[in-house]
Amino acid sequence: MFKILLWDLDNTLLDFREAEAYSIKKRFEEYGLGVLDDEAVARYSKINDYYWQRLETGEMSKEHILEARFETFFKNEGIIFDRIKSFNIDYENGLADKIFYNENGYEIVKSLTGKYKQYAVTNGAYTVQSVRLEKSGFGALFDGAFISDKVGFEKPSVEFFNTVLKSIPSCDKSEILIIGDSLTSDMKGGNNAGIKTCWYNPYENKNTKKVHIDYEIKSLNEIYKII
């Protein structure tokens, strides 16, 4: 049924929440800002999600959101801090310091190697995502990777997916499946590209965005039943 699988990375194959918490806690220690507890990390995460959604809808540029998220966070936490730019750079690089796998994503991708063409499709900084792909071992398994920084466009834009479709082996769009956790990035991007979508939804969230979804899974293992 499918010949090509497009995999999202963060919060699909890799646990971004864990990487996020690890990096921001380390940066707080390094910058002498004290210990950041889990509740504060959760507050930052909500702010970060808000800004990334503004990026996906085209309301803000990546250059703006990367620093704005920390400006908002520090202000809300009552922390006076004027080294936002360097903090952001170190935080971004720190996301690749330690790899956190999501479920058994690595084993699944490995088991499908040679049976399907598989590609990573991810938003994020090329310097960070390329290192994470290498360290995680996914880079060696995938047939290629499309990182927004390198592509020049973000998911869910048509331009991002046009680049992907032009670069992968030619086949009918009905034979391409994108698997990801984000309605606004992965599922909407799949809709924009005219390919099949599989929403990875382990927390059983509601489809509040009214985005068309072809398949929905709670566990990554369910992908076997679909493909």
Describe the structure.
This protein has 227 residues and is of the alpha/beta class. Helices cover 50% and strands 12% of the residues. The chain has 11 helices and 6 strands. α2 (38-56) runs antiparallel to α3 (62-77). The longest helix has 19 residues, at 38-56. The relative contact order is 0.17.
* Main sheet attributes: strand count, strand direction, barrel closure: 6 strands, parallel
Distance between the termini: 6 Å
What share of the residues does DSSP label as strand, in percent? 5-15%
Helix count equals 11
* Total strands: 6
In what order do the strands lie side by side in the largest sheet? 3-2-1-4-5-6
Q: How much helicity do the residues have?
A: 40-55%
Mean pLDDT: 97
The topology string of helices and strands comes to EHHHHHEHHEHHEHEEH
Helices and strands: which structural class?
Answer: alpha/beta
Identify low-pLDDT runs: none
How would you describe the shape? globular
The value of Rg in angstroms is 18 Å
Pick out its properties.
single chain, 227 residues, alpha/beta, 11 helices, globular
Give a brief description.
This protein has 227 residues and is α/β, with parallel strands linked by helices. It has eleven helices and six strands. It has a six-stranded parallel β-sheet with strand order 3-2-1-4-5-6, with helices on both faces.
Question: Strands, helices and their partners?
Answer:
Elements: E1 4-7, H1 16-30, H2 38-56, H3 62-77, H4 84-94, H5 105-112, E2 117-122, H6 126-136, H7 138-141, E3 144-147, H8 148-151, H9 158-167, E4 176-180, H10 183-193, E5 196-200, E6 215-217, H11 223-226
Parallel strand pairs: 1-2, 1-4, 2-3, 4-5, 5-6
Helix pairs in contact: 1-2, 1-4, 2-3
